[in-house]
Amino acid sequence: MSDIRFRIAQSKDLPIITRIYNQAIQAQQTADTVLLTAEQRLPWFESHQDGKYPLYVVLQDDETIGYGTLSKYRGGRGALKGVVEVSYYLDQTAQGKGIGTTLLRFLLIVAKRLDFKHAYALLLDSNVESVGLLEKFGFVQWGHLPDIAEREGTTCGQLIYGLPLDH
Prior knowledge:
Blueprint: E1 4-8, H1 14-26, H2 38-46, E2 55-60, E3 63-72, E4 83-90, H3 99-113, E5 118-124, H4 128-136, E6 140-151, E7 154-164
Parallel strand pairs: 4-5
Antiparallel strand pairs: 1-2, 2-3, 3-4, 5-7, 6-7
Helix pairs in contact: 1-2
């Protein structure tokens, strides 16, 4: 595996980030069903510019091949300020090469550095690759909402996986 680097996402990264997310939509790895434009993703992008909930791009040989975020959980509710959502997406050409492991490890280090106490991830129960990655890091299933996502005539559930971040 070539050298993998991370950096805070910049506005110039939004088109490639959107393209990677649209790949996940097409692969039915997310609950979104309609492809998005960079313009539609702008509010989401801007919500990750405050330093507390960063958005990183993954670079390999100076090419953006993925991204990861830390996001608020139930924003504005003070008792939950120690909880953060982790999300990660890789270009299809970068999947299955151990890069997701490197990305999730990095996001968890950042979450600890930012003093979060718990990390969680939401995913479709049909996304077995992501389940395996989370479990590799010690995430456990905190909840399951069965058959709530409808896609092309089929249903699947949504999983909540969580991990205490020992400091």
